[in-house]
Amino acid sequence: MILKGKKGIIFGALNDMSIAWKVAELCVAEGAEIVLTNAPVAFRMKGDSNIKTLAEKLNCPAIPADATRIEDLEKLIDESMAHFGGKIDFVLHSIGMSINIRKDKPYTDLNHDFMLKSFDISSISFHKLMQSLWKKEAVNDWGSILALTYIGAQRIFPHYSEMAEAKSMLESFARSFGYHFGERNNIRVNTISQSPTMTTAGTGIEGFQEFLDYAENMSPIGNAPAQACAEYCISLFSDYTRYVTMQNLYHDGGFSNMGMNPAILNK
Ligand code: NAI
Questions:
Q1: pTM over 0.80, yes/no
Q2: 54: Cβ–Cβ under 8 A, 6 or more apart, which residues?
Q3: Whose Cα sits closest to atom 5 in ligand 1?
Q4: Mind listing the pLDDT tens digit for each residue in 4-54?
Q5: Which residue in 81, 87, 80, 84 sits closest to 64, CA to CA?
Q6: Which UniProt keywords apply (predicted)?
Q7: Cβ atoms of residues 236 and 30 within 8 Å
Q8: Residue 19: CB within 6 Å of ligand 1?
Q9: Rg of the chain's alpha carbons, rounded to an integer?
Q10: Would you please indicate which residues are annotated as catalytic (active-site) residues?
């Protein structure tokens, strides 16, 4: 129960493969109260595994918000604070989407209007969220703000396309806003750089299975599963990590520090 008494907002639970889904379940299991949110389109998903079924299961509100729209974010924050009867302790930004990848555009022929939209959804939304939280002074002192990222921000994975730049920007926003939140409220802001994971966003990338297999063989401990990522997120929301801020934290079974692994050659 390391989150007992804490209150948080979780973005990005689309279905039961989503990393945010596992984080939401574990937050509640560890004693937190949460509000779920996602883009309005996610609320129209059919089937047994969608944000509404998760909200029912966890007995928590689910509030639609397009993370690129300040009005939506402000409404979400106001409604969450009204629900909690006070400020928020933690927030997870688990949002990513590339329009150019969706439209199969090669990196050397990207559409720049699509690119701007991808950056707005995947990175600028994080600044918009933090700025809205900042202005409303919505986060308790010693709170924790977290976003999910990928090592494609530092190294080239050609099929990751414009998401490389999107994630670089996301990580930079965490550092820059981490300064301000730290100075004012001792609030920490970090990104977790997760292994490739079989989710809707992940499988949108060309050759994703090969990607996953390569990383699995390269990493001494193997790819970190979504559930383990959720466990790491929980530790960062808990009081055990209060001085960890402005960091990009690799959660990847060791992949990020490998040069060559004979396991790959042996295959
Ligand atoms: P997912 O597809 O389940 O989650 C992506 C979420 O973004 C969805 O819930 C989607 O509805 C939401 N979203 C898209 N546009 C939005 C908008 N305008 N407003 C609000 N929400 C919006 O996939 P996954 O993998 O759980 O992705 C979560 C995060 O983890 C993303 O930031 C992703 O880049 C990151 N990540 C994923 C990896 C993977 O291999 N799956 C590896 C490393 C990081």
A1: yes
A2: 13, 16, 21, 24, 25, 36, 62
A3: 95
A4: 999 999 999 999 999 999 999 999 999 999 999 999 999 999 888 999 999
A5: 80
A6: Fatty acid biosynthesis, Fatty acid metabolism, Lipid biosynthesis, Lipid metabolism, NAD, Oxidoreductase
A7: no
A8: yes
A9: 18
A10: 150, 160
Is any atom of ligand 1 closer than 6 Å to the C-beta of 164?
no
How far is the centre of ligand 1, averaged over its atoms, from the C-alpha of 149 (Å)?
Answer: 9
Predicted complex ipTM: 0.99
Cβ count near 158 (within 10 Å): 11
**Secondary structure in 3-state letters for the chain:** CCCCCCEEEEECCCCCCCHHHHHHHHHHHCCCEEEEEECHHHHHCCCCCCHHHHHHHHCCCEEECCCCCHHHHHHHHHHHHHHHCCCEEEEEECCCCCHHHHCCCCHHHCCHHHHHHHHHHHHHHHHHHHHHHHHCCCEEEEEEEEEEECHHHCCCCHHHCCHHHHHHHHHHHHHHHHHHHHHHHCCEEEEEEECCCCCHHHHCCCCHHHHHHHHHHHCCCCCCCHHHHHHHHHHHHCHHHCCCCCCEEEECCCHHHCCCCHHHHHC
* Residue 197 CB less than 6 A away from ligand 1: yes
